[in-house]
Amino acid sequence: MHIAITDYVLEVVQNAFEANSTETRVVLQETAEAFAVTVTDNGKGMSEEVMKRVLDPFSTEEGKHPHRKVGLGLSFLNQATELAGGELAGGELPLRSEVGVGTTVRFTFDPASIDTPPLGDVVSTFMTLLAHPKAGSLVIERKTETDGYALDRKELIGVLGDLEMSGNLHLLKEYIASQEAALS
Amino acid sequence: MAKMTLEELRKLREEKQEALEKRSIEGKDFRIIIGMGTCGIAAGAKETLSTFLSVLDEEKIKHVAITQTGCMGLCYVEPTVEVILPDMPPVIYGKVDADVARKIVKEHILGKRLVTDHMFDRPAADIIKQDGGR
Question: What are the distances in angstroms from CA A6 to CA A33, A175, B48, B100?
Protein backbone atom coordinates (compact mmCIF):
# COMPACT_ATOMS: atom_id res chain seq x y z
CA MET A 1 0.00 0.00 0.00
CA HIS A 2 1.05 3.57 -0.51
CA ILE A 3 1.92 5.80 2.35
CA ALA A 4 1.26 9.30 1.10
CA ILE A 5 -1.52 11.16 -0.67
CA THR A 6 0.92 12.26 -3.35
CA ASP A 7 1.62 8.61 -4.18
CA TYR A 8 -2.02 8.27 -5.16
CA VAL A 9 -1.82 11.49 -7.14
CA LEU A 10 1.15 10.12 -9.06
CA GLU A 11 -0.69 6.93 -9.82
CA VAL A 12 -3.93 8.52 -10.98
CA VAL A 13 -2.12 10.98 -13.24
CA GLN A 14 -0.02 8.16 -14.71
CA ASN A 15 -3.28 6.44 -15.58
CA ALA A 16 -4.29 9.57 -17.49
CA PHE A 17 -1.01 9.56 -19.42
CA GLU A 18 -1.37 5.89 -20.20
CA ALA A 19 -4.85 6.60 -21.56
CA ASN A 20 -3.10 8.89 -24.07
CA SER A 21 -4.23 12.12 -22.55
CA THR A 22 -2.75 15.13 -24.30
CA GLU A 23 -4.27 17.71 -21.98
CA THR A 24 -4.21 16.90 -18.32
CA ARG A 25 -5.07 19.13 -15.41
CA VAL A 26 -4.29 18.29 -11.81
CA VAL A 27 -5.65 20.32 -8.92
CA LEU A 28 -4.47 19.64 -5.38
CA GLN A 29 -6.49 21.69 -2.95
CA GLU A 30 -5.83 21.78 0.74
CA THR A 31 -8.43 23.27 3.09
CA ALA A 32 -9.36 22.74 6.71
CA GLU A 33 -12.13 20.37 5.59
CA ALA A 34 -10.39 18.29 2.99
CA PHE A 35 -7.43 17.39 0.89
CA ALA A 36 -9.11 17.32 -2.49
CA VAL A 37 -7.47 16.11 -5.66
CA THR A 38 -8.98 16.40 -9.13
CA VAL A 39 -7.38 14.93 -12.21
CA THR A 40 -9.00 15.72 -15.55
CA ASP A 41 -7.75 14.24 -18.79
CA ASN A 42 -8.76 14.09 -22.42
CA GLY A 43 -7.59 10.51 -22.83
CA LYS A 44 -9.53 7.70 -24.38
CA GLY A 45 -12.11 7.48 -21.59
CA MET A 46 -13.94 4.44 -20.29
CA SER A 47 -17.23 2.80 -21.07
CA GLU A 48 -19.68 2.26 -18.22
CA GLU A 49 -18.83 -1.40 -18.32
CA VAL A 50 -15.14 -0.69 -17.67
CA MET A 51 -15.93 1.90 -15.01
CA LYS A 52 -17.88 -0.63 -13.01
CA ARG A 53 -14.85 -2.87 -12.88
CA VAL A 54 -12.35 -0.14 -12.22
CA LEU A 55 -12.14 -0.70 -8.47
CA ASP A 56 -11.74 -4.43 -8.81
CA PRO A 57 -8.09 -5.23 -7.99
CA PHE A 58 -8.25 -8.27 -10.24
CA SER A 59 -9.26 -6.31 -13.25
CA THR A 60 -7.02 -4.31 -15.51
CA GLU A 61 -7.28 -2.96 -18.98
CA GLU A 62 -6.49 -5.47 -21.64
CA GLY A 63 -3.15 -4.87 -23.24
CA LYS A 64 -1.99 -2.37 -20.64
CA HIS A 65 0.10 -4.95 -18.85
CA PRO A 66 0.61 -8.11 -20.84
CA HIS A 67 0.68 -11.23 -18.64
CA ARG A 68 -0.76 -9.40 -15.69
CA LYS A 69 -4.20 -9.80 -14.23
CA VAL A 70 -4.24 -7.14 -11.53
CA GLY A 71 -4.84 -3.40 -11.52
CA LEU A 72 -4.25 -2.00 -8.09
CA GLY A 73 -4.03 1.78 -8.36
CA LEU A 74 -7.66 2.80 -7.95
CA SER A 75 -8.57 -0.06 -5.64
CA PHE A 76 -5.84 0.96 -3.21
CA LEU A 77 -7.01 4.53 -3.43
CA ASN A 78 -10.61 3.53 -2.83
CA GLN A 79 -9.69 1.59 0.29
CA ALA A 80 -7.57 4.43 1.63
CA THR A 81 -10.18 7.14 1.10
CA GLU A 82 -12.91 5.00 2.65
CA LEU A 83 -10.78 4.37 5.69
CA ALA A 84 -9.99 8.05 6.15
CA GLY A 85 -13.43 9.56 5.86
CA GLY A 86 -12.94 10.71 2.31
CA GLU A 87 -14.28 9.51 -0.98
CA LEU A 88 -13.40 8.63 -4.51
CA ALA A 89 -16.18 10.50 -6.19
CA GLY A 90 -18.06 10.79 -9.40
CA GLY A 91 -21.73 10.35 -8.62
CA GLU A 92 -22.75 6.72 -8.47
CA LEU A 93 -19.69 5.54 -10.27
CA PRO A 94 -16.27 6.06 -8.74
CA LEU A 95 -15.30 8.50 -11.46
CA ARG A 96 -16.65 10.31 -14.47
CA SER A 97 -15.62 9.18 -17.87
CA GLU A 98 -16.77 9.12 -21.44
CA VAL A 99 -15.26 7.13 -24.27
CA GLY A 100 -13.33 9.42 -26.59
CA VAL A 101 -13.78 12.45 -24.35
CA GLY A 102 -11.77 11.76 -21.23
CA THR A 103 -11.94 11.00 -17.55
CA THR A 104 -12.19 12.97 -14.34
CA VAL A 105 -11.09 11.42 -11.09
CA ARG A 106 -11.71 13.30 -7.89
CA PHE A 107 -10.82 12.08 -4.43
CA THR A 108 -10.77 13.58 -0.98
CA PHE A 109 -9.29 12.81 2.41
CA ASP A 110 -10.52 14.21 5.70
CA PRO A 111 -7.52 15.95 7.30
CA ALA A 112 -8.98 15.34 10.76
CA SER A 113 -9.09 11.58 10.34
CA ILE A 114 -6.31 9.63 11.96
CA ASP A 115 -6.26 7.31 8.96
CA THR A 116 -5.56 10.05 6.47
CA PRO A 117 -2.13 9.44 5.01
CA PRO A 118 0.43 12.26 5.12
CA LEU A 119 0.53 14.52 2.09
CA GLY A 120 3.99 13.25 1.19
CA ASP A 121 6.62 14.82 -1.00
CA VAL A 122 4.72 17.29 -3.16
CA VAL A 123 7.83 18.65 -4.87
CA SER A 124 9.22 15.38 -6.16
CA THR A 125 5.74 14.18 -7.13
CA PHE A 126 5.09 17.25 -9.27
CA MET A 127 8.56 17.03 -10.76
CA THR A 128 8.06 13.36 -11.59
CA LEU A 129 4.76 14.11 -13.31
CA LEU A 130 6.10 17.04 -15.30
CA ALA A 131 9.03 14.91 -16.47
CA HIS A 132 6.88 11.96 -17.52
CA PRO A 133 7.60 11.07 -21.14
CA LYS A 134 3.89 10.92 -21.98
CA ALA A 135 2.81 14.01 -20.06
CA GLY A 136 1.82 16.12 -23.08
CA SER A 137 0.23 19.36 -22.01
CA LEU A 138 0.00 19.23 -18.25
CA VAL A 139 -1.06 21.90 -15.80
CA ILE A 140 -0.73 21.34 -12.07
CA GLU A 141 -2.46 23.66 -9.63
CA ARG A 142 -1.67 23.64 -5.97
CA LYS A 143 -4.08 25.57 -3.77
CA THR A 144 -4.38 26.30 -0.09
CA GLU A 145 -7.14 28.42 1.42
CA THR A 146 -5.28 31.67 0.83
CA ASP A 147 -2.48 30.91 -1.57
CA GLY A 148 -1.43 28.75 -4.45
CA TYR A 149 0.71 28.31 -7.52
CA ALA A 150 0.42 26.69 -10.91
CA LEU A 151 2.91 24.74 -12.98
CA ASP A 152 2.41 24.69 -16.73
CA ARG A 153 4.54 22.05 -18.42
CA LYS A 154 4.69 23.87 -21.77
CA GLU A 155 5.85 27.05 -20.09
CA LEU A 156 8.48 25.18 -18.09
CA ILE A 157 9.80 23.41 -21.18
CA GLY A 158 10.03 26.83 -22.83
CA VAL A 159 12.29 27.99 -20.02
CA LEU A 160 14.24 24.83 -19.22
CA GLY A 161 14.26 22.82 -22.41
CA ASP A 162 14.16 19.03 -22.35
CA LEU A 163 12.73 17.90 -19.02
CA GLU A 164 14.41 14.53 -19.37
CA MET A 165 17.90 15.85 -18.76
CA SER A 166 19.11 15.55 -15.20
CA GLY A 167 20.45 19.11 -14.99
CA ASN A 168 17.14 20.60 -16.14
CA LEU A 169 15.21 18.31 -13.85
CA HIS A 170 17.27 19.43 -10.93
CA LEU A 171 16.46 23.08 -11.70
CA LEU A 172 12.81 22.17 -12.10
CA LYS A 173 12.87 20.60 -8.68
CA GLU A 174 14.43 23.72 -7.16
CA TYR A 175 11.79 25.84 -8.84
CA ILE A 176 8.90 23.76 -7.52
CA ALA A 177 10.50 23.65 -4.07
CA SER A 178 10.64 27.44 -3.99
CA GLN A 179 6.96 27.66 -4.92
CA GLU A 180 6.05 25.11 -2.30
CA ALA A 181 8.17 26.75 0.42
CA ALA A 182 6.56 30.13 -0.21
CA LEU A 183 3.05 28.73 0.24
CA SER A 184 1.13 30.15 3.15
CA MET B 1 13.45 30.44 0.19
CA ALA B 2 11.90 33.25 -1.84
CA LYS B 3 9.45 32.21 -4.49
CA MET B 4 11.31 31.89 -7.76
CA THR B 5 9.82 33.45 -10.88
CA LEU B 6 10.03 31.89 -14.33
CA GLU B 7 12.42 34.67 -15.30
CA GLU B 8 14.74 33.77 -12.45
CA LEU B 9 14.52 30.14 -13.44
CA ARG B 10 15.51 31.08 -16.98
CA LYS B 11 18.56 32.97 -15.70
CA LEU B 12 19.59 30.11 -13.47
CA ARG B 13 19.34 27.76 -16.39
CA GLU B 14 21.54 29.99 -18.53
CA GLU B 15 24.17 30.16 -15.80
CA LYS B 16 24.18 26.41 -15.43
CA GLN B 17 24.32 26.00 -19.18
CA GLU B 18 27.55 27.98 -19.33
CA ALA B 19 29.12 25.93 -16.57
CA LEU B 20 28.03 22.82 -18.41
CA GLU B 21 29.62 23.74 -21.70
CA LYS B 22 32.99 23.85 -20.02
CA ARG B 23 32.79 20.18 -19.19
CA SER B 24 33.42 17.58 -21.79
CA ILE B 25 33.32 14.17 -20.13
CA GLU B 26 29.62 13.70 -20.64
CA GLY B 27 27.92 12.16 -23.56
CA LYS B 28 24.26 12.54 -24.28
CA ASP B 29 23.75 8.81 -24.35
CA PHE B 30 23.78 8.35 -20.60
CA ARG B 31 20.39 7.11 -19.56
CA ILE B 32 18.81 6.11 -16.28
CA ILE B 33 15.41 4.45 -16.44
CA ILE B 34 13.44 4.31 -13.23
CA GLY B 35 10.53 1.91 -12.66
CA MET B 36 7.59 4.01 -11.51
CA GLY B 37 4.80 1.47 -11.45
CA THR B 38 2.61 0.92 -8.39
CA CYS B 39 5.29 -1.36 -6.93
CA GLY B 40 8.08 1.13 -7.56
CA ILE B 41 6.21 4.07 -6.07
CA ALA B 42 5.28 2.05 -2.99
CA ALA B 43 8.92 1.05 -2.53
CA GLY B 44 10.17 4.63 -2.76
CA ALA B 45 11.07 5.20 -6.41
CA LYS B 46 10.36 8.92 -6.05
CA GLU B 47 13.09 9.26 -3.43
CA THR B 48 15.41 7.27 -5.66
CA LEU B 49 14.76 9.67 -8.53
CA SER B 50 15.33 12.68 -6.27
CA THR B 51 18.59 11.25 -5.00
CA PHE B 52 19.87 10.62 -8.52
CA LEU B 53 19.16 14.25 -9.38
CA SER B 54 20.92 15.63 -6.31
CA VAL B 55 23.95 13.39 -6.64
CA LEU B 56 24.31 14.06 -10.37
CA ASP B 57 24.08 17.76 -9.60
CA GLU B 58 26.68 17.48 -6.84
CA GLU B 59 28.97 15.72 -9.28
CA LYS B 60 28.20 18.40 -11.88
CA ILE B 61 26.86 15.92 -14.38
CA LYS B 62 23.95 17.46 -16.29
CA HIS B 63 23.42 15.35 -19.33
CA VAL B 64 21.98 12.13 -18.06
CA ALA B 65 18.56 11.44 -19.50
CA ILE B 66 16.28 10.26 -16.74
CA THR B 67 13.24 8.39 -17.95
CA GLN B 68 10.35 6.86 -16.09
CA THR B 69 8.84 3.59 -17.03
CA GLY B 70 6.23 1.28 -15.60
CA CYS B 71 6.82 -1.95 -13.72
CA MET B 72 9.85 -3.85 -15.07
CA GLY B 73 8.59 -7.16 -13.73
CA LEU B 74 10.89 -7.25 -10.71
CA CYS B 75 8.42 -6.06 -8.08
CA TYR B 76 10.23 -7.93 -5.31
CA VAL B 77 13.36 -5.80 -5.64
CA GLU B 78 11.81 -2.39 -6.22
CA PRO B 79 12.81 0.35 -6.67
CA THR B 80 14.44 -0.86 -9.89
CA VAL B 81 16.63 1.22 -12.12
CA GLU B 82 18.19 0.49 -15.49
CA VAL B 83 21.45 2.24 -16.27
CA ILE B 84 22.56 2.54 -19.88
CA LEU B 85 25.97 3.96 -20.67
CA PRO B 86 27.53 3.90 -24.13
CA ASP B 87 30.55 1.80 -23.23
CA MET B 88 28.98 -0.45 -20.61
CA PRO B 89 26.42 -3.25 -20.71
CA PRO B 90 22.88 -2.14 -19.84
CA VAL B 91 22.26 -3.15 -16.24
CA ILE B 92 19.16 -3.40 -14.09
CA TYR B 93 19.74 -2.62 -10.46
CA GLY B 94 17.28 -3.58 -7.74
CA LYS B 95 16.58 -2.30 -4.23
CA VAL B 96 17.91 1.08 -5.21
CA ASP B 97 17.38 3.32 -2.21
CA ALA B 98 19.12 6.66 -1.74
CA ASP B 99 22.43 5.10 -0.70
CA VAL B 100 22.51 2.69 -3.61
CA ALA B 101 21.57 5.49 -6.02
CA ARG B 102 24.57 7.45 -4.76
CA LYS B 103 26.75 4.39 -5.19
CA ILE B 104 25.53 3.86 -8.75
CA VAL B 105 26.47 7.41 -9.73
CA LYS B 106 29.90 7.19 -8.11
CA GLU B 107 30.83 3.67 -9.16
CA HIS B 108 28.90 2.91 -12.32
CA ILE B 109 28.56 6.29 -14.00
CA LEU B 110 31.77 7.94 -12.84
CA GLY B 111 33.95 4.91 -12.07
CA LYS B 112 32.71 2.61 -14.86
CA ARG B 113 32.46 -0.29 -12.43
CA LEU B 114 29.30 -2.31 -11.94
CA VAL B 115 27.63 -2.24 -8.53
CA THR B 116 27.52 -6.02 -8.41
CA ASP B 117 25.62 -6.54 -5.17
CA HIS B 118 22.52 -4.82 -6.56
CA MET B 119 22.45 -6.24 -10.05
CA PHE B 120 19.33 -7.96 -11.24
CA ASP B 121 18.13 -8.64 -14.69
CA ARG B 122 14.98 -9.14 -16.63
CA PRO B 123 13.44 -12.58 -16.16
CA ALA B 124 15.52 -14.68 -18.50
CA ALA B 125 13.10 -15.28 -21.34
CA ASP B 126 15.73 -17.13 -23.32
CA ILE B 127 16.16 -19.98 -20.85
CA ILE B 128 12.61 -20.57 -19.67
CA LYS B 129 9.98 -22.36 -21.68
CA GLN B 130 7.36 -20.33 -23.47
CA ASP B 131 4.59 -21.75 -21.27
CA GLY B 132 6.55 -21.06 -18.09
CA GLY B 133 7.16 -24.79 -17.57
CA ARG B 134 3.51 -25.68 -17.04
Answer: 18, 18, 15, 24
Distances (CA, A) of A17 to A5, A11, A40, A68, A166: 19, 10, 11, 19, 21
Interface test mutation site (partner B, options A166, A170, A179, max chain B beta carbons within 10 A) = A166
Q: What is the pLDDT of residues A75-134, one digit of tens each?
A: 888 888 888 777 776 555 667 888 888 889 999 989 898 888 899 999 999 999 999 988
- Report the predicted TM-score, pTM, of the whole model to 2 decimal places: 0.83
- CB contact A181 to B (< 8 Å): yes
Whether residue B38 lies inside any domain: the answer is yes
Specify the number of domains making up chain B: 1
ipTM: 0.75
In angstroms, rounded to a whole number, what is the distance separating the alpha carbons of residues B126 and B8? 52
Residue B19 lies in a domain: no
- Structural domain of B49: 26-120
**Domain assignment of residue B132, yes or no:** no
Contact B9 A14 (CB under 8 A): no
CATH code of B113's domain: 3.40.30.10
Cβ <8 Å between B68 and A170: no
Closest CA to B77 of B54, B50, B100: B100
